[in-house]
What we know:
Chain A is of the alpha/beta class. Helix content of chain A is about 40%, strand content about 20%.
Amino acid sequence: MPAIDLNCDCGESFGPWPMGDDTAVLPHVTSANVACGGHAGDPTTMRQTVRLCKALGVAIGAHPGYPDMQGFGRRSIPMAPAEIEDLVLTQIGALHAIARAEGVELRHVKAHGALYNDAARTPLIAQAIARAVAAFSQDLVLVGLAGSALIDAGHAAGLRVAREAFADRAYEPDGSLRSRSLPDAMITDPARNLQQAISISARGFALSVTGIQVPVQADTLCIHGDTPGAAARAAALRAGLAAAGVEVRTY
Amino acid sequence: MPAIDLNCDCGESFGPWPMGDDTAVLPHVTSANVACGGHAGDPTTMRQTVRLCKALGVAIGAHPGYPDMQGFGRRSIPMAPAEIEDLVLTQIGALHAIARAEGVELRHVKAHGALYNDAARTPLIAQAIARAVAAFSQDLVLVGLAGSALIDAGHAAGLRVAREAFADRAYEPDGSLRSRSLPDAMITDPARNLQQAISISARGFALSVTGIQVPVQADTLCIHGDTPGAAARAAALRAGLAAAGVEVRTY
Amino acid sequence: MPAIDLNCDCGESFGPWPMGDDTAVLPHVTSANVACGGHAGDPTTMRQTVRLCKALGVAIGAHPGYPDMQGFGRRSIPMAPAEIEDLVLTQIGALHAIARAEGVELRHVKAHGALYNDAARTPLIAQAIARAVAAFSQDLVLVGLAGSALIDAGHAAGLRVAREAFADRAYEPDGSLRSRSLPDAMITDPARNLQQAISISARGFALSVTGIQVPVQADTLCIHGDTPGAAARAAALRAGLAAAGVEVRTY
Amino acid sequence: MPAIDLNCDCGESFGPWPMGDDTAVLPHVTSANVACGGHAGDPTTMRQTVRLCKALGVAIGAHPGYPDMQGFGRRSIPMAPAEIEDLVLTQIGALHAIARAEGVELRHVKAHGALYNDAARTPLIAQAIARAVAAFSQDLVLVGLAGSALIDAGHAAGLRVAREAFADRAYEPDGSLRSRSLPDAMITDPARNLQQAISISARGFALSVTGIQVPVQADTLCIHGDTPGAAARAAALRAGLAAAGVEVRTY
């Protein structure tokens, strides 16, 4: 029986500023990427988010990002690989301490925003992240874009990896994600989202923008939780996957 | 044979700004309190500092502080006890991750600046810190001002504690530290520093400002590392303690 | 004809995090307190907020706060009066530059949160703020709690002042605001809000919690814009004031 | 008689962390670029620096940088041109307010670090900075690398510009600065520094690394103040220029 994990970002409030609706969205996913105070989050938000995940039985992962609150980690900050390694270590460690106080273990690490993108493309950055994760714990799963440099770096570091794909992003014929600067980059129709989710999960391919089938091997699908109606869409996607015979569970 | 630990703050550089002379001072202490990114420090500074401590064989502890770089953690930020607990957890966790990557363990936790002072006086804050430390690891030693609320909170949480005293601060007849706003609060003469260090370490008392002996039970003495000549003074103090038959070692 | 100004805080988004609904609330007030990057706001949020105020013809003021995003300026940071003076100067200056680029002038300065409260009670802090405002421009109006130390400091500095009162806060018989830690501190009933607004604006007194009338001389009423339904309540209050013969206009 | 301005960065301390030796270096320059809280500086450091400049009669300019303390403004943060315009406005404004409180006027604006470099190369960024400066005041002089996009943008915005050259950086035959990643990029010999300073100031050319003379039209030379011996070198350079008949004065 085919299976897939559903993950979403959470804990991205900061001080007085809320973001997203974690309470509504998290019940529909199996893995949660919790902001660690780099691009978003603060110690008390981290604590509340870990408690919520624990109560829901959702697997908890660290979601490290560039140290840039104002830019929400979406701006690529030029840092040396060794600096990125240290940055990722401290963010994993911060969340780990919160998780330990709540009696749960971290399961995975997924980089955020620009750091995720840089790690997908740049082997030196990918290796820095993999080094940080491996140094912290060989039991952590490294999440990265399917087919990217980060997956390669994770394998080279002896880590378990989880390959991420997207139900709401269009794929190019070469298997890469279509740039958001181009038309038709986002798939907004829920029926097509579900179709792509099932196709990737159960059959290992996506229909590219040119109509050609491209192989996409994935262990987890990214759910975007910060848009209106996100919870309802996540619930529908999960139900649709189950109805199509795809088991939704943590990798 | 009487024994005492010597501790000093370190890793308090930030980005381009150096502080202190850790390389010169750390060889003369037995415990290092490493800034964790709250009042000072950044991931790469933490890494370099942990490496230095490891190379020197100095015990490494977390040095959490209020999240206030500009004020260097010397300003008391009004926070709820639960917020302080979360703050301390994330800072311990950040340093723990760095230490794990370097293959060393954290040994102790000592709060910094205003957080140290608030924890000495305010049981709710002391208990929040003790809760954080105990939740993270029962093997960590909680360092606090001798005779303070933090020591009580550590005991109540079932933690090992290390009681801190000062060779360069004058004591009042009731055993409290003389306020820095009063004259003669600081003991600047090296000979008197050594005398007080020996008296506390070997005999368990200090000569108060009124000339009365007051009991001061201490496991560790604080070395101030950020003043000119700090390394030479630390070396002299350590040598003087040894010459007086006091073993200088980690508690 | 009696007259009153209505003011509200705005521009309190930060980076990716929105706050309040400035577009809905600002049309109903006559003065806007724009966050300046201390407790909230960032350069681009400041620019957009100033543009919105300009388009609406709302008077623009600086809203400086303690440098504490995570605490949203609601935590009192212990700073020397000279530091507070410099802090307020730089925040006024930042907003002034944005306003100048938009071809508008700043009209007033109102401190935020803990800084507002500290300035109401502590003459040294009040004087520091008054010094900053007077040094920047004698044309700026200093807004402060009616009857507070800040109003005194403004007068002493030769500044025009605007005395602030609240339609939704209960007054004690001595004219002070009832502490929020006590019951009945907030007046949530819109009819009673309007009644108090008219009473203060037109007759110069409020009905205290004991039923005794207390004099409250005010030039401006604070509208809270960050609660659900804020815009509708502000519109109703403004209409009610007009219907009662109170002119709503900038002081 | 040929003339040149000497400028240096200053006010780059932050909270407890000092940087540079402004008191020693500033007496030897004619223009000071004061950090504005973006890459370095804080309100009280700004105030002290402006006071020092005023006492020394040194012209004061704003030195805006990317909002990145940890990276000291040396990391290029991807921001939209409009965001950069707002950023520069608020930083100019912050320093302007401090200067106004001290009764002095800002004379120039020089971007810092990565923002300076980006503005030299990227017309959209150069234009954003020029827009900010022109919007704030047509009386401000825009300082930029001689021959760069920023000088062009300043001219297009109708601003007076000051073209900057370097006595301690090697020039390529095309007039560009030799990359620091290449050998011989820095000219460390004081005699050669002076020679290049005189050559640029009095004759309008520099001797490039290949021995070919390249035209370098400059109004100001940059003095690096954060290296050991900076004050003595600055004094010697200034004396040497005077001895060679070059007047050292603000442009």
